[in-house]
Design brief:
Elements lengths: L7 E3 L2 E3 L6 E6 L2 E10 L3 H18 L4 H17 L1 H12 L3 H21 L6 E4 L5 E9 L2 E5 L7 H12 L3 E5 L5 H13 L7 E3 L4 H10 L3 E7 L2 H13 L4 E4 L4 E5 L5 H13 L9 E7 H15 L20 H17 L2 E4 L18 E4 L16 E7 L2 H9 L3 E2 L1 E5 L3 H10 L4 E4 L15 E2 L9 H7 L1 E9 L14
Parallel strand pairs: 7-8, 7-10, 8-9, 10-11, 12-13, 12-18, 13-16, 15-16, 18-19
Antiparallel strand pairs: 1-2, 3-4, 5-6, 6-21, 14-15, 17-20
Bound molecules: nicotinamide-adenine-dinucleotide.
Length: about 500
C-alpha cells in the first residue's frame, strides 16, 4: 500500500510545499513501514504561513476569550474521541509504547480543558490611582503571530502546550513540528479545525530545522517564539530571536537525577527508577539518566535495578505486552552507543546492556538495550551530558549533602527527585535542588499540565510552559489609565498640590 501524503496547513488549506519537495517519515520500530510523506518546506512556505497568521490575527484577537476557549474545549473533546486512532499513529511515527502514546494524547486533552478554563480567567489587575478621579488597570493583551518549534518526543502534548495557551490569549500561530513526528501535530491541528477554528489562526509547516525552523524565527511578523528541543539548537534560536527583540521561550535538555537515601522505600524507588530511566526509552527531557544512591543501600539497589531492567520487554510499541519501544531514529541509537563507549573508556562499570539489539524482531528498527552503568563518577561525561536513550548512571554518594551537591553539579536543571522517609530531608531537598521540578518519592517524570514546566541553567531561559507560566508567556501587559476628572492631571507632579 502506498503511503499517504500529508500537506502543510496554510490559511485553512492543505497545500504542497512551494518547492514541491517532500520526505518520507519511517516507523522507528520497522523502517520498512512508511508512516507518510510530508512536505519538505522552506522559507517561502514559512513566509506564506506567517502572512496568513498575521491576517487572521486581526480577526482572532477580537473574538472574546471565552468564545476562543470554547473552540479549544471542543478540540479537547474531539481528541478524546480520537485518542485511540491518534495514539496508534503516534506509536507508529515515534515508537513510544501504545499506553504512553495514549498518555501523550491525554495530555493534550488535559491541556485543552485547562486552557479552555483560562478563557474566563485571564485576570488582570486594578489598583487605585495616585490621582483623584482616575482609574488604573492592567490587562493581558495578545502578542500577535507566535512561531513554534517542537521536538519529537512528545509529539502531541508539547504542541498542545504551545498552541492552546497561545490561542486562548488571542494569538495566531505557525508551528513547525519535528521532522520525525509531523503527523501527531497535524492530527492535533485537525482536531482544532474540526472544532471550528477559523482559517489562518493555526498554520502547520513541516520540514527540517535549518530549512523550515530557522526562517520562522527570523520572520519579522513573528512576534514571539516558543522552542522546545536541544540546548544546542535552543542557543541558536535564542540568539536569532534576540536580534529582533522577540520574546523567546526555550525549553531544552536535562540531566535529571533521582536521589535514593538510605532510609528510602527501596522497592518504591526501584519502580520509580525503572519508569524514570526507561519510560519512553529514556527519551524524555525529564528522564532519570542519573541515580544517586547513598552507600548504605547502593549495592542492594544496583542489584535490584539490574535484575528488573534486564526483564524489560523491548519491541514494537504497538504490541501491548512491550515495556520499551525503539529509539526514534538512527542518530539517537548512535548517540546511545557513543555514550556507552565513552562511559566504558571513562572507567564506569557497564553492568547491563550497552548494545543495539539484534535479531529478526529488531533488525529493521532502532532498538537499544536497557543499559545500566554503576560506579559512575559525577564528573564523567555519562553523568554530565544528556544521552536521551535508555542509559542510566548509578552514582554512589556519602550522605544527603553530598547527594544534593552531585544533583546540582551539572549544566542542566530540569527535573529532580528524592526518595526518603525523612520529612526534614525532603523539605531541604525541595529548597536546595536548583531545578525547575522536584518530586518527593516519585520519579523525575510525570508533570501535570496545570503547573509550570521548565528548568534552570542550560534547560531554559526563565519562561515556563504549562500552568500560568504559559499564559504569562503568550500575553503581554497593557496598563490603562482612565482620567474622569475633566482636567489635566500630571502624575508625580500633581502629588501634594
Ligand atoms: P532538536 O533541538 O534537534 O530539534 C528540536 C526542533 O528544532 C525540531 O523541530 C527541529 O527541526 C528544530 N530545529 C533544528 N535546527 C534548527 C534551527 N537551526 N533553527 C530552528 N529550528 C531548528 O531536538 P529534538 O532532537 O527534536 O528533541 C530532543 C531534545 O529536546 C532533547 O534535548 C530534550 O531534552 C529536549 N526536550 C526538552 C523539553 C523541555 O520541555 N525542557 C521537552 C522535550 C524535549
Amino acid at each position: 500500500m502506498s503511503a499517504k501524503t500529508y500537506k502543510n496547513l496554510i490559511d485553512g488549506a492543505w497545500i504542497e510545499s512551494r518547492s514541491g519537495q517532500s520526505y518520507e517519515n519511517l516507523n522507528p520500530a520497522d523502517t520498512r513501514d512508511v508512516v507518510g510523506i510530508f512536505q519538505r518546506s522552506d522559507q517561502r512556505d514559512i513566509a506564506d504561513a506567517v502572512a496568513a497568521a498575521a491576517r487572521a490575527f486581526d480577526r482572532w484577537r477580537l473574538v472574546p476569550a471565552p468564545r476562543r476557549a470554547e473552540i479549544i474545549y471542543r478540540a479537547g473533546e474531539l481528541l478524546l474521541e480520537r485518542k485511540e486512532e491518534y495514539a496508534r499513529q503516534m506509536t507508529q511515527e515515534m515508537g513510544k509504547v501504545l499506553n504512553e502514546a495514549r498518555g501523550d494524547v491525554q495530555e493534550s486533552v488535559d491541556t485543552a480543558y485547562y486552557m479552555a478554563g483560562e478563557g474566563r480567567r485571564q485576570f488582570g489587575v486594578t489598583v487605585p490611582s495616585e490621582l483623584p478621579n482616575k482609574f488604573a488597570m492592567a490587562v493581558r493583551m495578545p502578542i500577535g503571530v507566535c512561531g513554534m518549534i517542537s521536538p519529537w518526543n512528545f509529539p502531541m502534548a508539547i504542541p498542545s502546550w504551545k498552541l492552546f495557551p497561545a490561542l486562548v490569549c488571542g494569538n495566531t500561530c505557525v508551528i513547525k513540528p519535528a521532522e520525525d513526528t509531523p503527523l501527531s501535530t497535524i492530527n492535533l491541528v485537525k482536531a482544532l479545525m474540526d472544532a471550528g477554528l477559523p482559517k489562518g489562526v493555526v498554520n502547520v509547516v513541516t520540514g527540517f530545522g535549518p530549512e523550515a525552523g530557522a526562517p520562522l524565527v527570523e520572520q519579522t511578523n513573528v512576534r514571539a517564539v516558543s522552542f522546545t528541543g536541544s540546548s544546542e539548537v535552543g542557543r541558536i534560536v535564542g540568539e536569532v530571536a534576540a536580534r529582533s527583540f522577540k520574546p523567546c521561550s526555550l525549553e531544552m535538555g536535562g540531566k535529571n537525577a533521582i536521589i535514593i537515601l538510605d532510609d528510602a522505600n527501596l522497592d518504591l524507588a526501584l519502580e520509580g527508577v525503572l519508569w524514570g530511566a526507561f519510560g519512553t526509552t529514556g527519551q524524555r527531557c525529564t528522564a532519570a539518566s542519573r541515580v544517586i544512591v547513598q552507600r548504605g543501600v547502593y549495592r542492594q539497589f544496583a542489584d535490584k535495578l539490574i535484575y528488573r531492567a534486564q526483564k524489560l520487554k523491548v519491541g514494537n510499541g504497538i504490541d501491548e505486552t512491550v515495556d520499551m519501544g525503539p529509539q526514534v531514529n538512527q542518530a539517537q541509537v548512535e548517540t546511545a552507543q557513543k555514550y556507552v563507549d565513552i562511559g566504558k573508556n571513562e572507567g564506569a562499570k557497564l553492568e547491563l546492556g550497552g548494545h543495539r539489539l539484534k535479531g529478526p524482531a529488531y533488525d529493521n528498527g532502532w532498538f537499544f538495550e536497557p543499559t545500566v552503568f554503576t560506579d559512575v563518577d559525577p564528573q564523567m561525561r555519562i553523568a554530565q551530558e544528556e544521552i536521551f536513550g535508555p542509559v542510566t548512571a548509578l552514582i554512589p554518594c556519602n550522605d544527603f549533602d553530598h547527594a544534593i551537591e552531585i544533583a546540582n553539579g551539572v549544566a542542566y536543571g530540569l527535573s529532580s527527585s528524592v526518595y526518603t522517609r525523612d520529612v526534614n530531608k525532603a523539605f531541604k531537598a525541595m529548597r536546595d535542588i536548583y531545578a525547575g521540578i522536584t518530586y518527593i518519592n516519585a520519579p523525575t517524570i510525570g508533570a501535570e499540565v496545570h503547573l509550570p514546566f521548565g528548568g534552570t541553567k542550560a534547560t531554559g531561559n526563565g519562561h515556563r510552559e504549562g500552568g500560568l507560566g504559559a499564559i504569562d508567556f503568550y500575553s503581554q501587559w497593557k496598563s490603562i489609565y482612565v482620567d474622569f476628572s475633566d482636567r489635566l492631571q500630571r502624575a508625580q507632579i500633581d502629588m501634594g498640590e
